[in-house]
């Protein structure tokens, strides 16, 4: 495996940091701390990014924000990936019809990165924020990992130092298999899940966010928080319903999370919402394949 170019890696770190907090500007000192680099090398990387339009510098405040070249790259990416364009349009339609919220994230190596949010209550949506990166380890990412190959699932179970004994690992495999059988993940509002969700939503400094979220996920892991059975007449305190989007190779790439239920709902309602979500995902994949 080729050694990564340090300057290239540092440039991507800078962009990731700023994409994860789009509502703030960053000083050079902020970015030095966030990327754990020295002042001279970070300044050199930032200067190149500014020169190429990937960052903009405010001379009055001496702060930086993302530049228009990244918007152009995003527009081009949407054309390269017809799935994403179709998914955004379909998500807008589903949230308008149901009054719920949708959060879309994408698998990026051993992380999930937030891609988009939809619906009137998008700020309250479950899932990661746009631009935020979260470690891909149990229970995070189960929506896409449930359909991954055995090797990916083995790595998922072992990732991040989570000390799962053999029975716990077997239970996690059973829970992933249950997601595949249902065709979706239904996650309940438990105390542990609520703590993880809160940690993901809090706006830590970027250098702390991954570490704190990762530590909390590891410390609170206790399964995937899904009900063993869903009875139509039952009542459930539901956090979200998640379903995957596969690319043309059959690779589970996007996780689509439907949330904002506002309290307990019936099992019949869960099944109805899940049917709408999975049908939307199927339609998106078909439209992408036809493009």
Automatic annotation (TrEMBL):
GO terms for molecular function: DNA binding; DNA-binding transcription factor activity. Residues 5-68 form the HTH iclR-type domain. Pfam families: IclR_C. Keywords: DNA-binding, Transcription, Transcription regulation. InterPro entries: GAF-like_dom_sf, HTH_MetabolicPath_Reg, Tscrpt_reg_IclR_C, Tscrpt_reg_IclR_N, WH-like_DNA-bd_sf, WH_DNA-bd_sf. GO terms for biological process: negative regulation of DNA-templated transcription. PROSITE patterns: HTH_ICLR, ICLR_ED. Residues 69-290 form the IclR-ED domain. This is IclR family transcriptional regulator. It comes from Sphingomonas crocodyli.
């Amino acid at each position: 495996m080729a050694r990564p170019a340090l300057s290239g890696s540092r440039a991507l770190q800078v962009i990731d940091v700023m994409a994860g907090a789009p509502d703030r500007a960053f000083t050079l000192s902020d970015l030095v701390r966030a990327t754990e680099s020295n002042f001279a090398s970070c300044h050199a990387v930032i200067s190149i990014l500014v020169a190429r339009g990937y960052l903009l510098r405010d001379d009055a405040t001496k702060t930086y924000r993302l530049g228009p070249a990244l918007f152009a790259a995003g527009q081009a990416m949407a054309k390269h990936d017809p799935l994403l364009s179709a998914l955004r349009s379909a998500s807008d339609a589903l949230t308008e019809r149901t009054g719920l919220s949708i959060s879309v994230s994408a698998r990026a190596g051993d992380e999930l990165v937030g891609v988009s949010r939809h619906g009137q209550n998008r700020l309250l949506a479950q899932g990661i924020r746009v631009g935020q990166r979260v470690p891909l380890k149990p229970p995070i990412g189960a929506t896409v990992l449930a359909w991954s190959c055995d090797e990916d699932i083995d790595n998922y179970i072992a990732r991040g130092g989570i000390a799962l004994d053999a029975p716990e690992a077997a239970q996690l495999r059973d829970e992933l298999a249950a997601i595949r059988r249902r065709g979706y993940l239904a996650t309940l509002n438990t105390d542990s899940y609520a703590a993880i969700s809160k940690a993901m939503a809090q706006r830590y400094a970027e250098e702390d966010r991954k570490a704190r979220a990762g530590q909390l996920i590891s410390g609170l892991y206790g399964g995937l928080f899904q009900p063993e059975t869903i009875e139509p007449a039952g009542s459930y305190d539901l956090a979200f319903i998640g379903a995957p989007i596969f690319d043309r190779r059959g690779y589970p790439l996007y996780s689509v999370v439907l949330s904002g239920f506002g309290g307990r709902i019936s099992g019949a309602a869960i099944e109805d919402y899940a049917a709408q979500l999975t049908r939307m995902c199927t339609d998106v994949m078909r439209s992408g394949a036809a493009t």
